Amino acid sequence: MGLVRIMGPACCDLILLTMFILMVGAVQAADPDPLQDFCIADLSHKSGQGYFLNGYPCKDPATVRAEDFIFKGLKDASIISPENPWGASANLAFARHWPALNTLGVALVRLDLIPGGVIAPHTHNLATEIVFVTAGELYIGFVANSDDVSAPNKLFAGMVKAGEAFVIPRGLVHFQMNKGTKNASTINFLNSHNPGISFLPLTLFGAQPAVDPALLARSFAVNETAVSALESLWSNFSGLFV
Fold first, then answer.
1. Nearest residue to 85 via CA among 125, 49, 55, 113
2. pLDDT averaged per 10 residues, the chain (length 242)
3. Does pTM surpass 0.70?
4. Which residues participate in the annotated binding site for Mn(2+)?
5. Which residue numbers belong to the known binding site for oxalate?
6. Residues comprising the binding site?
7. Domains, the chain, with CATH or none
8. How far apart are CA 46 and CA 48, in angstroms?
9. Which of 90, 138, 160, 208 matches a 20 to 30 Å C-alpha distance to 117?
């Protein structure tokens, strides 16, 4: 009798629920699961000859050393020059900087901001981010999507002190600002070895070739002279955080 009951309508509901859970799990996964213990990226390999890779090929495991799994690029604060337009720096540890992260679905970033410094509004279309403040305090926030039924364009922001963390949902526009009187630093964790970064000022005003100034002027309710000035400025910083 127990078998008969399972094979009834409840069984169909259970199957549908199981399928839904599996689909949701697949959608939420930022990167696919690796098929081996590790795949140290071979950055010397260039796609071509009729094929292109989604990611990086693996280095020969026989040549892998313990040093491949160590990254030293986040330990020191950056010196921020007066020419820096945002008063901030970002040291990236993505797969292209730390090949050991290839296929592992994780990445790190160190941010350093002088007083008044900002990390301009941007998105990571491929990853959720956790910002852990290690020094000073920062104003951190994100804006919900315009089509969020419950909270369209709602701002979620606050002051985050050293030892505290702030989570930013995948793909949403977010920012950081040092409103304090001393330098601030963070270590950020992202659930993709290549999270993607799109800074709004650089994407819109630093694009190559340039976005039509008439389109941007209409979109931001300003004149084309203002747009041209912004394009002239930001076109010089297109590789600021590469």
1. 113
2. 48 54 51 80 71 79 96 92 90 95 94 96 95 97 93 96 96 96 96 93 91 95 94 80 61
3. yes
4. 122, 124, 129, 174
5. 124, 129
6. 122, 124, 129, 174
7. 33-44+52-196 (2.60.120.10), 198-241 (no CATH)
8. 6
9. 208
